[in-house]
Design brief:
By secondary structure, this protein is of the alpha/beta class. It has helices at residues 5-17, 39-44, 66-73, 85-97, 101-105, 114-123, 136-147, and strands at residues 26-32, 49-56, 80-82, 109-111, 128-130. The protein has two domains: 5-56, no CATH class; 66-147, Rossmann fold. A three-stranded parallel β-sheet has the order 3-4-5, with helices on both faces. The chain has a two-stranded parallel sheet with strand order 1-2.
Length: 152
């Protein structure tokens, strides 16, 4: 599916409706430790069996390494990519802990969704560019828009 867990749910349900996936099938859902929605529960409510397995876990750092702080202070970082609300909040917390908030939040913040952008907006960022859809290709397109020179 191109997008988020809701798009994946809709794709699975469309496959069942089209007869390409049997309701009796058991699906394995490889997911992160922190789930934004209960995909297994939603599909289970439609009669499907979903086994969820935690495949990765985000462990935020308390502060950024010194070389990244130095790069922010020397204006060697041009933009920041954000893939989730949790990682955006971890970024905000880390730049605040390192005294880098003004430098870091002044840069273009390229966000995979409006929900992610809201975390950065609430933290004081003013240059958010949101992906047209929640996938990496659209996020990289947003980065391209953020870095495109403006004409005067």
């Amino acid at each position: 599916a191109k997008g988020d867990a809701a798009a994946l749910r809709d794709l699975v349900l469309a496959q069942v409706k089209a007869g390409k996936l049997k309701k009796a099938a058991t699906l394995l859902y490889l997911a992160g430790a922190d789930l934004s929605r209960d995909l297994a529960g939603e599909l289970g409510a439609k009669g499907l069996t979903v086994v969820t397995h935690t495949a990765y876990r985000m462990a935020p750092v308390a502060s950024l390494p010194g070389e990244i702080g130095d790069a922010f202070m020397a204006n060697r970082i041009t933009a920041v990519l954000h893939y989730s609300r949790r990682s955006a909040q971890a970024f905000v917390d880390a730049v605040r802990a390192g005294g880098l908030e003004i430098s870091a939040l002044a840069l273009p913040q390229c966000c995979i969704s409006a929900s992610v952008a809201s975390v950065l907006h609430d933290a004081g960022a003013t240059q958010m560019v949101v992906a047209a859809q929640p996938d990496e290709t659209a996020l990289l397109d947003a980065l391209g828009r953020a870095l495109r020179p403006t004409s005067t």
